[in-house]
Amino acid sequence: MTAFRALLISELKIFSRDRMAMFFTLLFPLVFILIFGFLMRGIGDVDQARLGILFTSETDGQSLMQTIEEAGSMDLSFFESQEELEDAVAARTIDFGMHWDGSGLQFFYDANRVQENFAFEQVARGIATEFDFRRQAVTRVLPIEEVHVGTIQSIGWYNLVLPGILAFSVLSAGLFAVSGHLTQMKQRNILDRLIVTPMPPMALLSAIVVIRLGVVFISTLITLGVGIAVFGLQFEVDWFRFVIFVICATLGTMGMGTIIALLVRRPSSASSLANVLAMVMMFFAGIYFPIEFMPAFLRSVGKGLPLTHMANAMRYVTGVIEMSELEFWAITFSLLGFAIVLFPVLARYVVRPLRR
Known about the structure:
The chain is mainly α and 356 residues long.
């Protein structure tokens, strides 16, 4: 027990001095959620959109207002002239504008808001279509029927992004624990000194796992807390599944790091390769935008990446999306399977002296 405690203390000191591992595990997720949160939060979310309205005719005005109120909980502002309305759109005191002259609807958008206008345009089309039905006193050819599809309430785009960043931080911690951290221990001759002591390889791996699990839990909780405190996000976390998933995912990604450590002969190159793979997976795994936006070939690539399924499982345990229990546990135990299969390989072929 004393020897294992010494390994834990030693591993903690080594990790605290590994600046790259600390950055990608602790600081990198925070940097990303802050940058993307301030720049891109609210994209695709029109519940709190600000709509400017100009009436130059009272004809069907009451019917139009009823249509707007049914379109969503938007913040409405009224203007006296089209010039004031256009100036407000340009100054972004409102998100988009609408002018009713008694014969037609005209909408105004800020051309610089490329990523947000698609959502405003959808709302505008809905208002125009429904208002046209009211004016003609006709019913829809295809009636609308509410169908229960789940219990998850409507959420914003950033609620989907943040759990994906949590999954990425878990991936980074696991990969760098072996491919970066352990191989750097070889390069610095730290591993050689430990191996000559009466220390079984699994004892060292256990110490690494305990430290990495602690760091990952701290990182995910801090990231989740910052998202809630700074951006007002709301999550319904299933802590039981959250804890189990984080443990299995961390162990599984450490197993993936074993493959890198075996393929790359030079220890200094393993960390760089892990960094490249992590960044590639981050952009193709649907972390910041749905993989459905990609071309068919890239969608196939994205669906084959472990991070894609890790991100979806993390969204499930934070209450953002729905997922079948079978799918969640299949993802979780598949990651655990990586660890069970590859940890003996790690103990035998990676935790050994560096051949010169």
